[in-house]
Specification:
- It contains 20 helices and 18 strands.
- It has 644 residues and is α/β, with parallel strands linked by helices.
- Strand 17 and strand 18 form a beta hairpin.
- Helix 3 runs antiparallel to helix 4, helix 5 packs antiparallel against helix 6 and helix 9 packs antiparallel against helix 10.
């Protein structure tokens, strides 16, 4: 499909990447991964022809079509939703116009026996067959399926696109690209503006309908569900892993261990050469050997080690006052703007220490209720904030409140207290502000960088109630892991507004769903909410079908939810136990293999060749190693069964 050979891109002294070679085949589902700035978005632009490489070739068959969704694009505001989406079928519309023109000409002409007329009939027949093979005029149904799948209501179809936010207009662009059914789909952060239901629909679409896919995403659940191959850009190289993201993480860790061992051996070799040169530099009898060592030293290519993974960094919130037992109580809370009701009769009680998720389609009122809790907007009903509640609030606009004249480091240093100040550089590194990035002034940071900085600042403030509105936007997977562990270990209470399933999994124990003007409570984690028989998809479809006649009410058996939650907790406990057993087994195997290697070296020496003590130990360890390998196989199979 697409063949890439010896690709090189330079923006400065050091290439962004070089010698990149790989092939994208039909039905490939590829995750393009790497740290921020590694060149993922650049690679997508090169693949679609928007940017030229410094060197190398990208070979694309003439008949192949490519659909590209960038993170940011120019959006049209002069049509309705349905009219804009129909532009995906512009070629088919032009084809229909040609058919209509030929049909009119055939009806007007009377030279039925002429060669020109017969040629016209043949051309019309061929064009019409091609038109019907492409689906004819059935694209209206495909448009409706795609728009509703991406979260639009049928009542939205005839609304001007100018009435929608940038995120919703990006959904229209995504719909147009999907409807064109290109041979290769290039998607750069496609889930940034989607809710959970729309993300699940997109996953299903890509699995069933797409041809080849290359995507960049920080949504771990999404790329695991979609991809079967991982291309990593690291240290200026592109490494191809024929596995999905989770398996890639394991293989990458093994690769880095190998790199470390090779690097240590190389450093020892370099040190030995330098020592030899220094020792014999001025001895005439060793001049030839010294020169040989110098030449060997010059030819050594330094081994590079993949970027350090800071996911092991542990970040703990500073001590804070204990809040009252119920930080938030909402009684019949509602919010309207003129004749539009965002939600009504919302009743919820959040206990101290609970971590809860607000989920639902964009525009259903999640952020609106957060603003009511913060006291930023008026509301109907009763909303009580508990005793001693200290709120730490993160929203995208929080980034605008940072002091633009401070550096990144100063911004964090000003709020850090105690021992945490010794780890500021580690924390900044985990959130992609390592090295020289920490000395940048806030005023030169992008919007995404400012959001990350505002998040770090919040993590170091002594609060007992966190409200985080889309906290994972602009964070890579390592940063999200650090944030998730910090919230999990947080003693206080937290409300998290998010569509990131992997981030919410294992973090929240209660879910509030916002849909059709109602707020419903579900006991359990995010996957308990998704996997219920009364699924969000069904709820939303019911809402769409009855919206003109108001809502139909949906009730959930909370006992069933609690049972499902308990079962999931037990499953997680078994999983952790199995993972620990596999890890301990692997550690024993590693020690045995290391000892066997040592014994091999000793037994190769003449003085130990007949040493019965060493031979007996060697035989005994080999036997135990075989047993341990069999044990590892059984434990691994058990772990795999628990995963499924």
């Amino acid at each position: 499909m697409i063949s890439v050979e010896n690709l090189k891109v330079e923006f400065g002294v050091k290439p962004l990447f070089e010698d990149a070679s790989f092939v994208i085949n039909d039905k490939d589902r590829i995750a393009l991964v790497g740290k921020n700035g590694a060149g993922k978005s650049t690679m997508l632009k090169i693949l679609c022809g928007q940017q030229r490489p410094t060197a190398g070739t990208v070979a694309i068959p003439n008949e192949a079509t490519i659909g590209y969704l960038p993170q940011v694009m120019k959006l049209s505001d002069d049509t309705t939703v349905i009219e804009e989406t129909r532009k995906a079928f512009a070629d088919r519309t032009r084809q229909k116009e040609r058919l209509d023109s030929m049909e009119r000409e055939m009806g007007e002409r009377t030279d039925y026996e002429s060669d020109e007329y017969m040629a016209l009939v043949e051309r019309f027949t061929h064009e019409h067959e091609r038109y019907m093979m492409m689906g004819g005029e059935n694209y209206e149904a495909a448009i409706e399926r795609t728009l509703t799948g991406l979260g639009f209501l049928r009542t939205d179809f005839d609304r001007p696109t100018s009435e929608f936010s940038g995120g919703w207009r990006m959904r229209i662009e995504l719909a147009k690209i999907l409807l064109q059914s290109p041979d290769v789909l290039l998607l750069d952060e496609p889930t940034n503006h989607l809710d959970i239901e729309s993300i699940q629909w997109l996953e299903q679409f890509l699995a069933q309908s797409a041809k080849a896919v290359v995507l960049v995403s920080h949504d771990r659940a999404f790329i695991n569900n979609v991809t079967n191959r991982t291309l990593e850009i690291s240290c200026g190289r592109v490494i191809d892993y024929k596995v999905n993201y989770d398996k890639y993480v394991v293989l990458r860790a093994e690769r880095r261990e190998q790199q470390l061992r090779a690097y240590e051996n190389q450093q020892k070799e370099i040190a030995d050469m330098k020592a030899f040169i220094e020792r014999f530099r001025y001895q005439a009898t060793k001049a030839v050997q010294v020169q040989q060592k110098i030449k060997q030293l010059e030819k050594i290519v330094p081994i590079e080690i993949d970027e350090v993974d800071n996911s092991a960094l542990r970040l703990k919130f500073p001590p804070c006052l204990r809040s009252g037992d119920y930080p938030v109580i909402c009684d019949e809370v509602g919010k309207t703007y003129g004749s539009h009701t965002v939600f009504s009769h919302a009743n919820l009680t959040i206990k101290r220490g609970e971590k809860v998720a607000f989920v639902g389609r964009n525009g259903e009122g999640k952020t609106t209720l957060v603003k009511c809790i913060m006291g930023e907007i008026p509301y109907d009903g009763s909303l009580k904030i508990g005793h001693n509640v200290q709120i730490g609030y993160f929203a995208q606009n929080q980034a605008q409140l940072l002091d633009e004249n401070l550096t990144v480091f100063q911004t964090i240093d000003n709020v850090a207290r105690g021992e945490i100040r010794l780890r500021i550089n580690d924390i900044l590194g985990a959130f992609m502000f390592g090295g020289e990035e920490s000395e940048k002034k806030v005023k030169v940071l992008s919007g995404g960088e400012r959001s990350r900085l505002a998040m770090i600042r919040l993590l170091l403030e002594p609060v007992n109630f966190l409200i985080l509105d889309e906290p994972t936007n602009h964070l890579d997977m390592t940063s999200k892991d650090v944030l998730k562990e910090a919230i999990r270990a947080f003693d206080g209470t937290a409300i998290i507004v998010s569509h990131d399933r992997d981030f919410l999994d294992g973090l929240v124990d209660k879910v509030y769903e916002f849909a059709g003007g109602k707020v419903r409570e579900y006991i359990g984690g995010i996957y308990d909410w998704i996997e219920r028989g009364d699924s969000p998809q069904q709820n939303t479809q019911n809402i769409r079908n009855t919206q003109s006649n108001q809502e139909s009410h949906t009730h959930i058996d909370s006992t069933k939810g609690a049972t499902s939650y308990a079962e999931r907790k037990e499953q997680q406990k078994k999983l952790r136990k199995a993972e620990k057993a596999v890890k301990e087994c692997e550690e024993r195997i590693t020690k045995m293999e290391a000892r066997i290697k040592e014994l091999d070296t000793l037994l190769c020496k003449p003085e130990h060749a007949a040493d019965m003590v060493l031979i007996t130990e060697y035989t005994d360890i080999k036997r135990k190693l075989d047993e341990e390998n069999n044990n590892w196989m059984q434990l691994s199979e058990r772990l795999e069964e628990l995963h499924f």
